[in-house]
Amino acid sequence: MTAVEIPGVAETPHPPDEDLVLDVRDLRMRYGSLDVLHGVDFTARRGEVLALLGPNGAGKTTTIEVLEGFRMRSAGDVRVLGVDPGRGDERWRARLGVVLQSWRDHGKWRVRDVLAHLGDFYAPYSTDRIRRPWPVDELLETVGLTAHADKRVQRLSGGQRRRLDVAVGIVGRPELLFLDEPTVGFDPAARREFHDLVHRLADLDETTILLTTHDLDEAEKLADRILILAGGRIIADGSPDELARRVAGDAEIRWTRAGERFVHSATDATAFVRDLLGQHGDEVQELEVRRASLEDAYMTLVYEEETGVRAGAAVRVWQERDR
Ligand SMILES: Nc1ncnc2c1ncn2[C@@H]1O[C@H](COP(=O)(O)OP(=O)(O)OP(=O)(O)O)[C@@H](O)[C@H]1O
């Protein structure tokens, strides 16, 4: 239907969608003569965790820097918490959290003092819903730095420094948090604690989180949605399961019976296994169901983008290679 303009009748403004935290349309970025982003589109809603994946040089950091308001885009319509990041003021900035690569300034300051000092900046931006800043002792506890609260920053280990980076990023209780490769340098225990923290921020505080990582296992554990950036565009956007299904719809079921090996592909693996066990019961041994992993999906989709060749079959090749 075509809209008809009636002279003198003001258009009813759309109420802002409070839950739409990121709205990126046709984002383009050019450095000199190098086109890095050719039209990036995606949205994020309140409390969602998004992982932005892509090969080195794909433009992940560029995208995040545009959204943070640190870099001016070449073209496109971008709204971050309802505001164009190129025009965001201090009040808008106070609603964002950014975890950059390591906090190296103020090496002589003590951890507690850094957080108290930075936290003070956020106090005027408290709202009825969000009390800012995060109380320092609670924050230290949350990021696992209580025992190091009185250490000077320059005396922290690499992993402790990274925890401080995270604390600096969330001290203002951000509504939107950007994490650029957050767990580089974490030991396995710190990584698990960090994952718990991300879940807690998203589930309890409804923080929207956009993270970049090259660790697909981490992306799968943390993200509600995976975005794959390649060739200057988002080439895939969905849950880890959806992406895996997209490149390999069928699951592969393997089993042995009476010493003989069997392999079968089925869209509904559960129904197939139920029938199989119903028919042969205890005779079925070494039952295995395998779907494409997020890594299979990532490799296939990026390969397709880079070569222009449909590579559905490549998943099977990788699966075979892994055996
Ligand atoms: N300030 C700049 N001036 C010119 N070119 C730049 C600039 N910053 C980035 N680039 C180029 O833009 C492209 C994208 O870089 P970007 O850092 O955004 O990629 P990335 O996906 O974050 O990569 P990585 O996974 O390696 O961190 C690269 O080719 C890079 O060389």
Would you give an account of this structure?
The structure is a single chain. This protein is α/β, with parallel strands linked by helices and 323 residues long. The chain has two domains: 20-238, P-loop containing nucleotide triphosphate hydrolases (Rossmann fold, 3-Layer(aba) Sandwich); 245-322, no CATH class. The chain has eleven helices and twelve strands. The strands form three sheets. Strands 5-6-7-3-8-9 form a six-stranded mixed sheet, sandwiched between helices. Strands 2-1-4 form a three-stranded antiparallel sheet, covered by helices on one side. Strands 11-10-12 form a three-stranded antiparallel sheet, covered by helices on one side. Strand 6 (176-180), helix 6 (188-204) and strand 7 (208-212) form a beta-alpha-beta unit. Helix 8 packs across helix 10. It is globular and about 70 Å long. The protein starts with 19 loop residues before the first strand and ends with a helix. Mean pLDDT is 87; it is low at 1-11 and 312-323. Adenosine-5'-triphosphate (ATP) binds at residues 31, 34, 36, 54, 56-62. This is ABC-2 type transport system ATP-binding protein. Its main location: membrane.
